[in-house]
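Hey,
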Amino acid sequence: MISRQISDISPYPASTNSLVKICRHQFKWRCCLTSATLILILLSIIPLRLAIAQYQSPHPQAILTLGGGRDREKFTAQFAQTHPSLDIWVSSGSPPDVLYAIFQNANIPIQRVHLDYRAVDTVTNFTSLVADFKRRNIQHIYLITSDYHIPRAKAIAILVLGSQSITFTPVAVPSNQPPESWLRILRDSIRALLWIMTGHTGARLKSQLISSLSFVIRPLSYH
């Protein structure tokens, strides 16, 4: 009796409702298939773009340091002494007065130093500056960060910089920190792909994403 009343209220006949459900299901699958195809195309194009950038600019044209500690900034100042022709970008590092003092103490002209504070995490370290590098026709950069941070930074750089035909040479700053979790690398790789496809980094969703990945992957570790 109740089911009959519900079917009477429905604006569609039962057969039409079933057809609508089938169409919705097919639409979701097509969206997933389209997204997967786009990702595969991107992943196949990026290595080619990196190779072309490496061929056209075999030597780095600039230095990018990811903020995250004075040790990285002091290392960069010393590194810049041996690369006097390269400009330096520091993404969301120490306050300007601190950074300028570090570079001045190393006799690095302030005109070479570009400070940028738009980034809020490692993914946005790259997405906030990649357009600036493109405008300056920079195709190859030195990427400076801590040794434990290098794997995640490289994964993001391959996707974000590589999608814009910019290659990089990683330079590791020694530290005593343990390697980062591969879940964090996977999370930020997904966010980098999201940026390539939509222009959004998902910075507000990163904590939810890592929790979701942990929930999905943890049961697999028991097998």
